[in-house]
Design goal:
The protein has 535 residues and is an alpha+beta fold. It contains 15 helices and 22 strands. Strands 1, 2, 3, 4, 5, 8 and 9 form a 7-stranded antiparallel β-sheet that branches. α11 packs antiparallel against α12. It starts with a helix and ends with a strand.
């Protein structure tokens, strides 16, 4: 990879990091779209952008945001378009296939197939090709995905220029950041709306606490504590959220069911009936599960009605976003500072320093540039894994040969026990990527005594990487495979890294039909085990 490509990768990572920060600062979807377009305007030259959503319920594609040649247009002027499941039309093709499209010959494609629409700066919508040729030369379309489903499309159009492949890569990253910010904003707006609805529902529930058949269809968990502090109502949503059946809870004090209830209840504000309820989100441990529940409580004539909603998923999303910003910012800062400092030294004092010192500075720039490229590649690969956009090849793989090749790629001395007869079914490049990650971690954390073994056990090809380092605490052994997880969250003692290596490794192994586990006792090292289907 040449210097220009390294520079582009670093600039892309910096732009996406800044986009995540800017787009996450607003809780209004309309403002998110505006900031998204501001970021686009500074990154990719274009003449129009349209953000559309797709509703599976009615099969229609609707415009949410449109900007054409300097003018913000009313999305209502765009007619809803029915999804064409045969793939006719560019938007339908992206939604059905789930893959981005980029065309620099729009006029030719419009003539060949499908139904298309064009709009000018005044908001005049034309159906193509009946009304004449389009004014657009090039277009990029990227799907908006949520939990593996396509929920929208973002189009970027140019009237005078063609788009480059690197611009499509950057456009995909910005769309992913925008989609996450819009989902978060809509969740917050829905939360406010639901809290207002809860207050009204809870007032009714206080007067009609015996109407359990009605409460059982409410999406929020609801329970009633009478004046003696005994649970008299526990609806179906409360059962689903907590895993506690109604017959386990009703007729008992909450503290008998959940030992931490008294401390929890002291932090939940209780308002009188008719007053505005105020929600509070608290951590709750129930039967070994860690949940984040948002509570409101209203006092009525028969006791206190509590309503709660499970926000564990949203909390994890926020934590992942914070971890991403903190980790990548920290990891980018050091190599960027080294590259900048070495370059400045060469520029300002190039005539004064000798050839040996100049070579050292150039080697520093190359090394740190490679580190920047590695960080960028890890972030982009993790994003592609989340989207399911990774191709896995299938073939016979010689694990002994891969183990030796991986050891050659990592600085260190390894004791390798790898017979020639062990072959697995999988992707050779991806398996080697996993092994390099494990060996690199073993050297960083486990010291010099690293052992690699390859064996065939029944229908499973197994690779183990063992070290004699400090080991991994039992409480962290599940979490080390999480995205961005670092055993040292302040980056003070542990070696550098994005916290993505083990996440990527486990995801790749699982996509090849295998598994990746760790066995460790503190103080006696760690052993990572990769199991793949035998060829």
């Amino acid at each position: 990879m040449d210097g220009a490509e390294l520079q582009r990768k670093a600039e892309t990572a910096e732009l996406l990091l800044d986009a995540a920060r800017q787009l996450g600062e607003t809780l209004e979807p309309e403002h998110v779209y505006e900031r998204f377009h501001d970021l686009l305007a500074g990154a990719i030259e274009h003449d129009a952008v349209v953000v559309s959503s797709y509703d599976e319920a009615d099969g229609l594609i609707r415009c949410d945001y449109a900007w054409v040649e300097g003018n913000r247009l009313d999305p209502a002027i765009f007619p809803p378009v029915a999804l064409n499941r045969e793939g006719g039309g560019m938007q339908s093709r992206v939604i059905v296939g789930g893959e981005p499209l980029a065309f620099n010959d729009v006029e030719e494609r419009v003539q060949r197939e499908g139904t298309y629409y064009d709009v000018n700066a005044e908001g005049t919508v034309r159906k193509l090709p009946e009304s004449g040729p389009p004014g657009t030369q090039a277009v990029m379309m990227v799907p908006v995905k949520h939990q593996g489903r396509v929920v929208g499309v973002v189009q970027l159009m140019s009237d005078r220029r063609a788009f480059e492949p690197a611009e499509l890569e950057l456009f995909e990253g910005l769309v992913a950041q925008m989609a996450a910010a819009v989902r978060n904003a809509r969740l917050q707006r829905e939360r406010v709306r639901l809290e207002a609805a809860e207050a009204a529902a809870l007032a009714v529930a206080a007067e009609r606490e015996q109407a359990a058949n009605v409460l059982d269809v409410v999406g929020d968990g609801i329970f009633l504590l009478d004046r003696d502090g005994i649970v008299r109502l526990w609806n179906r949503a409360a059962e689903i959220a907590t895993g506690l059946r109604s017959d386990e809870v009703v007729g008992r004090a909450p503290g008998d069911v959940s030992p931490g209830w008294d401390e929890l209840a002291a932090r939940i504000p209780i308002v009188e009936r008719g007053a505005s309820a105020r929600s509070v989100t608290l951590p709750v441990e129930l039967r070994g599960r860690d949940l984040w529940l948002s509570f409101v409580a209203v006092r009525g004539p028969e006791g206190v009605v509590y309503a709660f909603r499970d926000l564990t998923g949203e909390r994890r999303l926020d934590e992942e976003k914070s971890d991403f910003i903190a980790t990548v910012s920290h990891e980018l800062r050091t190599p960027m500072a080294a590259v900048y400092g070495a370059a400045q030294t060469l520029l300002r004092r190039g005539d004064e320093i000798g050839p040996e010192r100049a070579r050292q500075l150039l080697e520093m720039i190359a090394t740190q540039g490679a580190r920047l490229s590695q960080i960028t590649e890890e972030v982009l690969l993790a994003s592609r894994l989340d989207r399911g956009d990774i191709r896995i090849e299938r073939g016979r793989v010689d694990l002994a040969e891969l183990a030796r090749a991986a050891a050659d790629a990592v600085e260190g001395a390894f004791d390798i026990d790898a017979p020639e007869a062990v072959t697995a079914a999988g992707d050779a490049d991806r398996i080697q990527q996993v092994l390099v990650n494990l060996l690199d971690n073993a050297v960083k954390y486990g010291g010099r005594d690293v052992r690699v073994s390859v064996e065939l056990c029944d229908a499973v090809a197994r690779i183990t990487v063992s070290d004699s380092g400090p080991g991994i605490p039992h409480a962290e052994q599940r979490r080390i495979f999480e995205k961005f997880y670092r055993g040292d969250p302040h980056h003070a003692r542990s070696p550098g890294g994005t916290g993505l290596g083990l996440f990527i490794s486990r995801e790749l192994v699982q996509r090849m039909g295998g598994r990746l586990d760790v066995h460790s006792e503190p103080g006696v090292g760690a052993t990572f085990v990769v199991e793949l289907p035998a060829a």
